[in-house]
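Notebook p. 47: complex prediction with 5'-O-[(L-methionyl)-sulphamoyl]adenosine.
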Amino acid sequence: MKDKFYITTPIYYANAKAHIGHAYTTIAADALARFHKLQNEDVFFLTGMDEHGAKIQKAAEKAGKSPQEFVNNISEGFENLWKNLNIKYDGFIRTTDNNHKEAVRKVLQKLYDDGAIYKGEYEGLYCTGCEQFKSENELVDGKCPDHNIAPEMMKEECYLLKMTELQKELIEKIKSDEFQIAPERYKKEILSFLEGQKLEDVSISRRNILWGITLPFDEDHTTYVWVDAFLNYLTGLGWNGDLNDIPKQWPADVQLIGKDILRVHATIWPIMLLHLGLPLPKKLFVHGHILSGGKKMSKTLGNVIGIDEMIEKFGVDGTRYLLLDAGTFGEDVDVTMERMVEKYNNDLANGLGNLVSRVVKLVQNFQFSISPPKADQPWAGNFQTISNDQTLNTLNNIEIEKALEYIWKIVRDANKYIEDTKPWESAKDESRKEEFEKVMQKLVDDLGLIAELLIPFMPQTSEKIKKALETKKLDEVLFQRIK
Ligand code: MSP
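Predicted complex, structure tokens below:
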């Protein structure tokens, strides 16, 4: 039987247009999903939209639209962007889907019947940006550091989810890696948080937020948006909330998330699953934030790099590459337009693009006959023949930039090989025919290998290289230098 591989991105708030941070996670998930598909695994890649809650209600009011009309529009924009970026997801969940809403209600009823949810009151400081209560010690100068706004004091009757009784079990599962949190330092961070204090029960309902899923056992309350949102990871697989009929893809193999949403994903989410008796995700992989010029991107600072702007300038595969290789996946990465242009010119125009055009020109000019790839050659479309290579190990460990570094070493070495061996000289000398053929065959093989290895990251470029090898011509210059 095929191994299964289920990967998710967070679902994005439908309160504003997609930005580079959303694209960062989604492109990474796409590359990983494509990589696992190439290994013949039964892959499901889920992404989608988080469409309820106070933040969205407010944004819709401001835009003078009904919340549904508003989220329809935003979600369409996200879907279009994913199409443009060549993202091949298997499921796109929206929390306003009827199936999702019904399933959430079923789950909540079950938790209530089991006594995991009880009625009470909650008082605390609420940040609408995070859609979370904040403790005093999380604030900087009285403000939420992520949103730079002072949270509002809220006190209301609500329903609460029991957290404390499952805290010990959760700690054990994280420690043993049954529920793995990676990279390691995030595991440490969460363990030190969980071991340092008693988890408070969490309010899972709101009285004054109408834009949400009504609680099945109390119509005066709507579901807290995070509880609603987490269940997407199951309903996105078509689950209807029936605990006797859990989708075969569950548990998720990898859940990609940004570091700002680690705490909720490592506490409320697994505790909900434990209450339901469901297995926890196998791995929560946490990535850092994209900064620009050392600072968080913000309109006020004027350092925002638009994703559409990137696609226009660097093309789809150029954008995918620059984001995937922006730095160590897992740490904060800093991007500026200037550095991206430089990297584009170095790695793509002068590096890969130049290599492809040189090899194809040599093949054309000296009529080198490319024999069809043998079955065991990687570019015969057999990704698995390179299964011992470094890419596989690095990508299984989600070390995306290391996989790319490995590929670009082949690119650089091949460009250097051309300079060292000067095949245009041996081509003209009958006595060096053998040498010429050997050099050319190596270059063609290298290019084939590069094309195959690039499939997860730059699928269109990979296709173009393969086509050039087959037809012995390039229809276009790959990655023109830019200013
Ligand atoms: N809706 C919640 C997630 C619910 S999942 C059950 C949410 N949405 S979000 O749209 O605000 O953020 C989604 C993801 O985008 C998060 O993982 C977040 O870390 C990521 N990013 C948002 N801005 C980012 C950067 N500037 N850089 C990298 N990723 C960032 O949170």
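Notes: The pocket of 5'-O-[(L-methionyl)-sulphamoyl]adenosine is lined by residues 10-13, 21-22, 24-25, 50, 229-230, 232, 257-258, 260-261, 289-290, 297 (CB under 6 Å). The first helix runs from residue 20 to 38.
Next step: compare against the earlier run before touching the bench.
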